[in-house]
Design goal:
243 residues, mainly alpha
Length: 243
């Protein structure tokens, strides 16, 4: 009888998780993590709360992928319970931050007003919530679960990318840069699938392409007359929220 060989766990997921988290932390370093070293004005409490919650999510995301790589599925599943709660808090604090941000007059990197730009966090939070919910629901189908959770992380790269653009320049190419960053990570996922299985998983293919195309769509809708009253309502609600 042939000896039982333990099933190898792909290193791709823990590695790309580290890259995604490093990218996010570096992007937010100047405006959030090391903000005290700059002359930026103090952040409102809602942004601090959202930042802390999202930082906890980043730590959990890396930990979960490392646990699977170490074959500690038992701990991964136990932490998954905390992950459900944490993802809920990410969404709730993200929505609150969206309202407050919309109430702060400014012109964004994409040339949108604060009210118009409310579509950006909304269309980041929504895919994140959908992908995480699907990932949790399909947690016993590993091939789907890990891809959905990875795409959930990729779906919220818009804000850190915007911080990098503001920090390094390239405002006139902001939309192209946003699409390119998402596309690079999606291509990495597709390349991994093709190299390992000689076939591209539909979750990566369909979900990844949708995340890339979401950028020009959200920009177009944000500038449209259809979105104007919605954005203005969000801005007014944000003003009432902050008093």
């Amino acid at each position: 009888m042939s000896p039982i060989v333990p099933r190898a766990h792909p290193r791709f997921y823990p590695l790309i998780a580290i890259v995604l988290v490093a990218f996010t932390v570096i992007a937010f370093s100047r405006s959030y993590y090391l903000r005290f070293l700059s002359d930026f004005p103090p952040l409102r409490v809602v942004f601090h709360v959202h930042g802390l919650v999202f930082t906890a999510w980043l730590a959990l995301f890396v930990t979960q992928t490392q646990l699977i790589a170490a074959r500690r599925v038992d701990l991964h599943m136990k932490l998954g319970i905390a992950g459900v709660l944490l993802s809920f808090l990410v969404v709730m604090t993200g929505v609150a931050a969206m309202f407050v941000s919309a109430a702060t007059p400014r012109i964004t990197l994409l040339g949108l007003t604060a009210a118009q730009a409310s579509i950006l966090p909304l269309t980041a939070i929504t895919p994140f919530a959908i992908l995480v919910t699907a990932g949790v629901a399909l947690r016993h189908r590993t091939s789907l679960h890990r891809r959905l959770m990875l795409l959930a992380m990729i779906s919220v790269l818009g804000p850190p990318t915007a911080r990098l653009i503001a920090m390094l320049g390239g405002r006139q190419y902001a939309l192209l840069i946003q699409m390119t960053v998402i596309a690079v990570f999606v291509i990495a996922c597709l390349a991994y699938d093709w190299r390992k299985n000689r076939v591209v998983h539909p979750v990566f293919a369909i979900g990844g392409i949708a995340l890339v195309l979401l950028w020009p769509l959200r920009y177009t809708v944000g500038r449209s007359e259809m979105w104007r009253p919605i954005g203005e309502w969000i801005a007014e609600a944000g003003k009432r929220l902050i008093g």
